[in-house]
Amino acid sequence: MLTPELLHALHNLPLAARQAAEGFLAGHHLSRRRGPGMEFSQYRPYQPGDDLRQLDWRLAARSDRYYLRESEVDTSLTVHLLLDASASMNHRDDNGLTKLDYARLLLAALAYLAQQQGDAVSLSVLHPAGLVHLPARADARQLPRIYQTLQNTTGTGRFPEAARLAPLLARRQRALTVCVSDLYEEQGEIQQLLTRLRAVAGEVLVLHLMAGNELHFTYRGAVTFQDLESGQTLQLNADDQRPGYQQQLQEWLRTTAHAARRQGFDYHQLTTTEPLDGALREFLRRRQATSL
């Protein structure tokens, strides 16, 4: 099993996504959407970026025109990927990965997996400077767009204000929304966004990302902590504070999970130290349930 550290060390997001998603390409469901399936349905003209494996070379030789053989494939789901790119996602774990590093790997793998399933995929990056949004597409050029956007994303500031996220709520298309976030918020702004998205688009899968060192509080002795979003600092003795910290953290995690499920979200907690397979399985499970 490839660890997130090894995937990150590749310094090649498309390759890392493909490696991570291998072995999870299952669970197709039937639809009437055209694509590179098994049963031939019709021809359409070639467009730049199309998969050349679907080109009908015999027809091209006879007519000097390029057409793709289209079929009816197992698809018809829109997958909407959300990335929390606030500054708290810059928190670095003991394995050297930040939450944002892990989130990039995970979302790239999910995008690859969704496209292999024939799904249309969109990506929205949420940060205070504004919303970066790639509309849902199922063509061969969408994955490179998603990879490039993820690679260019940096964590900064606080979670964006509701007014900046309004375009996400304007669409009324049925979708499976997958949000990767550490769920650090001031006044429930992340939960409010996901609640509204569930109302307009359907199912929401929340992948709650924690760093291993904050989950297990691996710090020792005198430590100075800094809030990555506000810049405030706090000096304390980690050994003295560990029992109280862990108790409060577990209470917060229970409350967060309960609130998410009460709102009708699928909730899954993961850490930056674990392989991506748990989140990928959760995605496929939710995808299959959504398509029924």
UniProtKB/TrEMBL annotation:
Q: Which InterPro entries match?
A: DUF58, vWFA_dom_sf
Q: Tell me which Pfam families the record gives.
A: DUF58 (PF01882)
Q: Where is the DUF58 domain?
A: 42-248
**Protein name per UniProt:** DUF58 domain-containing protein
> Which PANTHER family does the protein's record reference?
BLL2464 PROTEIN, DUF58 DOMAIN-CONTAINING PROTEIN
Q: Which organism is it from?
A: Hymenobacter fastidiosus
